[in-house]
Amino acid sequence: MDLIAYFSISGNTKKVAEKLNSLVDADIFEIKAKKEYPTEYRSLVDVSKVEWEENQRPELAEDINIEEYDKLFLLYPNWFGTVPMVVATFLETHDFAGKTIQPICTNGGGGLGNSVSFIEELTDGEVFEGLGITSSQVDTCEDKLSKII
Hints:
Blueprint: E1 2-6, H1 12-23, E2 26-30, H2 41-53, E3 71-77, H3 85-92, E4 100-107, H4 115-122, E5 126-127, E6 131-134, H5 142-146
Parallel strand pairs: 1-2, 1-3, 3-4, 4-5, 4-6
C-alpha cells in the first residue's frame, strides 16, 4: 500500500499531491507543524531560516501510523536547498526500514537542492531519485508524475 505525505504552505505542493493521488491508489496525509507557519512570505522566510540554521525539529500537529505502507511519496517545497524542518521531524519519527521513499520537490527554480541526500541521512528506507517540479510546472505535472509511479 502507498502513502502520499506532503507539506505545503503556498498550495503548490498540495496541488501536486492531489494530482499524484488521482494517478495512484494511495492514502494521503498532510504534514503540518503544531505551531502554524506565518502566511506572509518575509515572516515565513525568517521563521524557516531560524529552523534551518538551528537544525530545529518542529513538533507535528498530528501523525500517521506508516507501518502498513510499503511506499512513501514524499512531497515538499525546497526550503534553503533541502526539506523543511517539519518534514525532517516527520521522517525522523518513523521507521522506514523495508520501505521505499519517492521524493518530489516543488521549487521556484532551485531544483531538489540537497534534499534527497538529506532524506537518505534521516531515514533507513530506500530513497529513489527525486523529482523536481517547478512552480510553473505545477498545473501540468501529470506527465512528470506518471513517469515515477
